[in-house]
């Protein structure tokens, strides 16, 4: 039986990935600082769920101990201190994001090399791309080769860039078999949908679900900024295909090329709600007055560039955004109802 170690498996992408590995009959160990996964039952996603802080090198050393005393076949490093624009662009979390995620990556890569694991996947982010190539909402450049000269617009992006280099250095110096991918805004059910760390697709679905008929839905910024969003099931498929080939180690983009404005994304969520809701774009002084900090917009434009992945892998993602938004809206609408019922019962 093959074995896999999933760091951050208590989170969104890690939960889906662990489920897929379990379905493929892997023996799966999840390690996460959360005591339990919020949405999955552990039997569905792993054989062992270890609550643990990966900033602690002792814990990392222990969890690399594989069953049968053989090194893990596959290691997935998805644990990070992260969130959407409302978390990484306010400035308040910069020190923690850099410190926490860098420690996790330093511990992981060191132990993976020491234990001679089969291979290790590192999840970087599109946030490492230079801001100056993402100023035009209609024409962003996120080709892998455009990464340098580096100029990410967030400390989260700088840490990702550092850790990409860290994993690649361990490949060069210690022959660690690494795979590095840059995720572009991954969304879907069983992920953060409230609380401040949620990303735009989840936020739009939640707001549309909560807004009454003839109400107003708030969208941060002009609404003209662009992004692309990849459904988590296709993300997992792309990760596994990339992980299990021997042609190249990345970095490579994993994302969708279906670029939309954030107002278009919001309108999709509104249409799925079936309600008559008006978009209100909140920015500038109005935003500061209401929330006490600058509107966290991030880059003006971003789109995945999938040429390299398609060329190397002979496969590419294809699921339309609206399809993914449909199942995300259904799930979030359900969460909103459950949360309301729980508040009423208290
Ligand atoms: P997530 O927040 O749902 O999952 C990350 C998990 O890491 C969480 O469960 C968290 O508890 C865990 N974690 C954080 N600190 C830890 C610690 N000290 N010890 C152990 N566990 C710890 O995020 P996600 O959306 O599933 O993202 C997974 C990875 O992909 C992250 O590295 C993230 O930066 C990267 N990424 C995600 C996206 C996206 O759109 N979701 C985009 C780009 C990159
Ligand atoms: N989160 C959120 N919530 N964003 C909103 C909202 C809202 O209610 N309204 C408008 N937006 C806008 C943000 O201001 C931003 O311009 C855009 O929607 C996208 O926001 P997010 O989805 O939160 O983040 P991002 O695309 O800027 O960055 C995300 O993707 C990266 C990879 O592409 C983050 O999740 C990063 O952590 C990730 O690495």
TrEMBL record:
Q: Which SUPFAM superfamilies does this one have?
A: NAD(P)-binding Rossmann-fold domains (SSF51735)
Q: Which Pfam families match?
A: Epimerase
Keywords per UniProt = NAD
What residues does the NAD-dependent epimerase/dehydratase domain cover?
4-255
List each coiled-coil range.
none
Checking InterPro entries in the record gives: Epimerase_deHydtase (IPR001509), NAD(P)-bd_dom_sf (IPR036291)
Q: Does the keyword NAD apply?
A: yes
User: Could you name the domain of life of the organism this protein comes from?
Assistant: Bacteria
Name under which the protein is recorded? Nucleoside-diphosphate-sugar epimerase
Q: Name the species this protein comes from.
A: Cyclonatronum proteinivorum
What is the organism lineage in this UniProt record? Bacteria, Pseudomonadati, Balneolota, Balneolia, Balneolales
């Amino acid at each position: 039986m093959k074995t896999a170690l999933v760091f951050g498996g208590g989170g969104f992408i890690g939960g889906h990935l662990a489920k897929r590995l379990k379905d493929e009959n892997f023996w799966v160990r999840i390690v996460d600082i959360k005591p339990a996964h919020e949405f999955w039952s552990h039997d569905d996603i792993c054989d062992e769920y270890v609550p643990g802080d990966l900033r602690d090198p002792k814990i990392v050393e222990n969890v690399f101990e594989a069953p049968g005393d053989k090194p893990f076949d596959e290691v997935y490093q998805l644990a990070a201190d992260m969130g959407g624009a409302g978390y990484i662009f306010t400035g308040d979390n910069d020190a923690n994001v850099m410190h926490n995620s860098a420690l996790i990556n330093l511990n992981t890569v060191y132990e993976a090399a020491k234990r001679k694991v089969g291979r290790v996947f590192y999840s970087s982010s599109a946030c490492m791309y230079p801001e100056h190539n993402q100023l035009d909402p209609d024409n962003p450049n996120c080709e892998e080769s455009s990464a340098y000269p580096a100029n990410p617009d967030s400390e989260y992006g700088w840490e990702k860039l550092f850790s990409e280099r860290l994993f690649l250095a361990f490949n060069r110096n210690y022959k660690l078999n690494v795979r590095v991918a840059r995720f572009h805004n991954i969304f879907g059910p069983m992920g953060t949908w409230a609380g401040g760390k949620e990303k735009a697709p989840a936020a739009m679905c939640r707001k549309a679900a909560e807004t009454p008929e003839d109400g107003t839905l708030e969208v941060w910024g002009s609404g003209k900024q662009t992004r692309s969003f990849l459904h988590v099931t296709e993300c997992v498929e792309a990760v596994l295909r990339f992980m299990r080939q021997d042609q190249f180690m990345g970095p490579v983009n994993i994302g969708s090329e279906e670029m939309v404005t954030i107002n278009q994304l919001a309108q999709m969520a509104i249409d799925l709600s079936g309600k008559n809701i008006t978009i209100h774009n909140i920015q500038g002084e109005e935003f500061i007055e209401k929330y006490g900090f600058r509107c966290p917009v991030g880059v003006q434009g971003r789109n995945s560039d999938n040429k390299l992945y398609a060329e190397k892998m002979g496969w590419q993602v294809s699921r339309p955004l609206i399809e993914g938004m449909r199942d995300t809206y259904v799930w979030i609408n359900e969460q909103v109802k459950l949360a309301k019922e729980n508040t009423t019962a208290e």
